[in-house]
Structure formats: structure tokens, C-alpha cells
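Sample entry (414 residues):
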Amino acid sequence: MTHFIVHMEGSGKWPSEPMAIRHVKAAFHICLRELLCNQHNYRCHATPGYLDVWKDGLVFRIQVAYHREPQILRESLTPEGMLIYRDNAEAQALELETLHKPFLTSTLHGLQQQYGCFGVVCRLAKRWLASQFLLEDIREEAADLLVASLFLHPAPFTPPSSPQVGFLRFLHLLSTFDWKNNPLIVNLNGKLTAVEQTDIKNDFVASRESLPTMFIVTPNDKKVSVWTKEAPSVQMLQRAVMLAAESLRVLETRLDSGEKQDMRVAFRPPLEAYDVLIHLDSKQVPLLAKAVDPPVNTFQRGTHGGQPYASGGALPVIDYDPVRLYLSELRDAFGDLALFFYDPYGGTVIAVLWKPNAFEPKPFKTSLMNARRVKVNDDVATTVPNVEAILQDFRIIGEGLVKRLELRTEKWVV
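Predicted structure, serialized as C-alpha cells:
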């Protein structure tokens, strides 16, 4: 699926209420759908938030954007009628999707035009992060910036000239950079002067305690690090550093020994550290062909009759991903007890890790009995996780998707 952001021109005719703006954008999506269907016979599906267009076997998701909407979402009135501005998660998310991401995409496109292997290195880096269950903590945009720094600031080397070299340098950067004491400055288009970079480093040192664990600076993002503001946490960054160092060691050892090069060895995640492994039915994994070790036989749900990409007719199922929905339900139900990890590109295992304080007894409260059972010691009632019921819920929620559970009982005690 390819995403497009259509920025509408500013005009005094735009409403000043968030809900009214959403209605106007929904109307644009409906009108655009009618034009594409009637004049070009494309298969389209309009929703309030976007428009999906099916053309030549590809899906294009079009989203209308109004540049003042994030600012309007931050506006609120006090009881006295005074207009104030207050930041919120909705405004930040919309700003990322409609302003920051398109700008970053166009800038990185320029890098791809300059360095032919830049895009391949980015894909390798993000595929490695996904295979190691890290892509939800280190966003794709952050990975792109890490790779961009290898080409913009390659000293003491020259910019990578092959995907393999670029990937090895990505692992080296991730595993050796001093994230605690330094910001990673990515000087896109050379807009940051030496004086500005010095000021950025000084501000970073002065405000380190309040800044994200991984802090990436660009000319348009000097103080916030928008792509790493929410994640990774200290623990997940430490794990990423450790995995990158080990993957780099394995690959370098194979290269030095002259063995047959199989880079997939660095993309296979270590599963020994997890407490429960939820094995999935491969027939229900939508991107099975993109797995690190794809099966010999893959599955297709349905066949195309006649010309597969003919215009007109019903729109095919788009964005089918039952594993993502299953993960969302697991995190909503048990996110206070466990962490859930998954490779979105054809992974057939969901790894579960109990949180460090998950099994600590808690005072008995009728309102806090979800997934817990009562335990009485010395006439004092406390609650502990009901592991048997939780595991049963894993199976029930994932009925038709879950194949089996593998329990690492030596890793935890109830």
C-alpha cells in the first residue's frame, strides 16, 4: 500500500472547529472517489479519514490534509472565554503524518538520487529491526535517519557503495554510538552550521534528563526528536544495542572465515529470552512470503479470474492482517502484565515476556481482578496473576489463528 498526503490550499472558507474540518475532508474523499470511479473506472473506497484506490494491482491510500488542523486541535477555551494552546497526542500524531513525514520522505528521496544504494540499506536496516522485534520501538523514520547519517557523515570512511557495507555500518553505528551522552546529528541538506551543531550539543547536555533515550537531531527538529520521542525505552535501546553488536560479530566472523555468506543468520531472532511463545497458523499470516525463512509452500486466499487487475468491480480486501488485530487485543487485555513482540513481515511467532513486577502480590480489590486470582497468606488476601487463565485466554482470543503455545516454565515461577 502506498500512502499519499494531499495538502489543500489555505482559505478563509475552512471551518475553525476540528469536527467540521473532519467533515470537509470526508466530503473531499467522497467527491474524489466519485470522480475516479466515474471518469477513470477505478475501484475506490472512501472513508472519513482516507480514500483507497485500486489501480493495476496496487493500492493507493489518499489522505486529505489541512495545514492548520494540528494547530486548531491544540486550541481550547477557558471558562472565562480565553483562547489557550495546549499540546495533545492527537495533534502531535496528525502533525507527524501530514507535515513531518512528507517532508522527511522528500528529503530522503534526494539522498536516494545521490547515493544509489541508500534505499536498499534502509530496507535492510528496517527488515533487521522487524525480525528482531524492534520495529515498534525504533520507528521506520528513525531507522531511515540512522542510515542517512552513514551517508552524510561517513568519516573516517567514504559513503557506503554497496548494501552489504551499508548494513554492516548501520549495525556498528547502532551498537557503538554513545546514546546516553550525545545526540545523533543528521545534517540533512547541510543546513546546520558548525555553530548550530555546537549549540545543539550544549543544549542536549544541559537538558539530558528530560530528553528521549535515543535523540536524533535534524535541521527541522533540533529540540524534540519527534521520531524517537515516545520510544525506545532505555531497556529496549539496550537490547537493540546488544542485538546489533552480536549480529555484527556474526556477520564479520563469517566474512573473515570465507564461509558461504548467508545474511539471514543475522535476521533470526533469539527466542530463548522469552517466557511464552505463541505459534501462529501460517495460513493466517498475510505476509508469509516476506518471512526471513519463508516456507516452501505459501498460501493464497482466493484467485483472480480473467485479467487479475482489470478496472471496475468490487474492491479486494485491503490491509488484511489478523495478527495485528490479535496483538492489539492481547496488549489491551494483558499489557499491564506482559510485553508482546512480533515480526510484522511474515512472522509466525508472537513472543511474550512477563514484566518484572507482574507476579508481585497486590492488595485485593474487586475492581482489579482482571486476569488475577486471590491468594491468602496469614489471613491477608492478595491477588496474583492467574497464569493458567491468561494462557487459556491467549488461545480463546486467537481461535483459528493460534496453533500452539510453547511455555518456558523455567523462566518464571507462579
